[in-house]
Design goal:
single chain, about 400 residues, mainly beta, Neuraminidase, 4-stranded antiparallel sheet, 3 helices
Length: about 400
């Protein structure tokens, strides 16, 4: 048990610095699996989750057509670039078109701008641009500090800030590292350091109402979530409940949804524990990521099983009924944490690696709940890798 968890945690150490390491190597690849379960919160090997069989469990709404636009990263041109396409895969075009490496961070909440990493200055920095690729603006200038930002980086709900973590380059075998959490003004005015730790920081997030900041702090013995009221000088306090994998703020209620690997529950910003969203019996694997639909009606989890080609599944949960169903199982290698909701809360954009190439697919969750064997629609399919899909928010439509 200890050896397995320590090995997984070493993987987590790589996540915080992966973009910078990729910059040094000159190649960007899709992000690795998320932070594993630390030994501080478990004392025995979890039993396997029973992946449920598919069956309708609530009134299905009328199925929609996939609409809108999806931004993503592609290396089809020999280097990482930001692309934009329609939700049916048509009109794919390069927004950045630069010989440097450009990797998507995500849409602004109003859907008018895109944030991205770029090495075009000779260092890994954060930029923003309009949705059509115009008016590119550099927000960070870290080269003289020897530090760089790493994924993920989150937007504040009002679009005025990005919340990100920076550090010096990570080296293999390194245990301790000083990392700083920054509020980055998206008008380029200033960068505000708000928290520094001598451990790994990950999953920086701003609550949907803009009132709280959250970040995870990781060392070799534990992984803890810290929360503070939004401020230029925040006062972060640790949450004592286990929140092992990347948390997800519920988009309507001001609570955080967490997983310790085999169960899902919510925590309020004051640290109070709430009832489980959906209990699971165990399975030879664990839940690795959580994502709420924009209307907060559904929770999507990525379940990772040990061994075998069919080791990753998407499980769709309706908290109002407490029931859940597997909607998709990938036999080829679904990329953990790389799925995105459409604004209508019905469609997903996800990635899967087949024949050593990663492509972007779409899937309607309501159609898939009756047929987990349904094959998602592939939107990309040239010689390069296509990953990190992000559906444009509804406000811009």
């Amino acid at each position: 048990m200890t050896q397995r968890l320590l090995t997984l945690l070493e993987v987590a150490l790589i996540i915080g610095a992966i973009l910078f390491v990729m910059y040094i190597g000159g190649v960007f690849t899709p992000p690795p699996p998320p932070t594993p379960t630390p030994t501080a919160f478990t004392t025995s090997t979890p039993a396997p989750i029973q992946v449920p069989t598919a069956k309708p469990f609530f009134t299905q709404p009328p199925l929609t057509q996939a609409t809108g636009r999806i931004a993503f990263t592609s290396d089809r041109d020999g280097d990482a670039e930001i692309y934009l396409m329609n939700a049916d895969g048509t009109e794919q075009r390069n927004l950045t078109n630069n010989p440097a490496q450009d990797v998507l961070i995500g849409w602004s909440p109003d859907g008018t701008r895109l944030a991205f990493f770029s090495t075009r200055t000779g260092w890994l920095e954060i930029f923003v641009m309009e949705a059509d690729g115009s008016h590119i603006s550099q927000l960070t200038d870290s080269i003289d500090t020897g530090m760089a930002y790493s994924a993920p980086v989150s937007w504040s709900p009002d679009g005025k800030y990005l919340l990100g973590v920076r550090s010096i380059p990570w080296q293999a075998g390194q245990v301790a590292i000083t990392m700083t959490l920054d509020l980055i003004q998206t008008d380029g005015a200033r960068i505000i350091p708000v928290y520094t730790a001598n451990n790994w920081l990950s999953s920086p997030k701003v609550s949907p109402d803009g009132r709280y900041l959250s970040v995870k702090q990781i060392d070799r013995s534990e992984s803890r979530l810290y929360i503070s009221p939004f401020s230029d000088h925040p006062n972060f306090s640790p949450i004592n409940q286990p929140c092992t994998f990347d948390p997800a703020w519920q988009p309507i209620q001001n609570v955080i949804t967490c997983s310790d690997g085999d169960s899902i529950f919510t925590i309020s910003p004051d640290g109070a524990y709430h009832d489980s969203v959906s209990p699971h019996s165990n399975a030879g694997g664990y839940i690795t990521s959580l994502s709420w639909s924009p209307d907060a009606s559904s929770l999507l989890t990525n379940y990772f099983g040990f061994g075998g080609p069919s080791s990753q599944s998407l499980i769709f949960i309706r908290p109002d009924s407490g029931q859940h169903v597997m909607i998709y199982r990938d036999s080829a290698g679904m990329q953990t944490n790389t799925f995105a909701w459409a604004p209508d809360s019905q469609w997903l954009a996800l990635t899967s690696t087949k024949n050593d190439l990663t492509d972007i697919y779409t899937l309607n969750i309501y159609a898939a709940q009756n047929s987990p064997a349904m094959i998602p629609l592939r939107l990309t399919g040239d010689s390069g890798n296509n990953y990190l899909p992000q559906w444009q928010p509804a406000q811009a439509h």
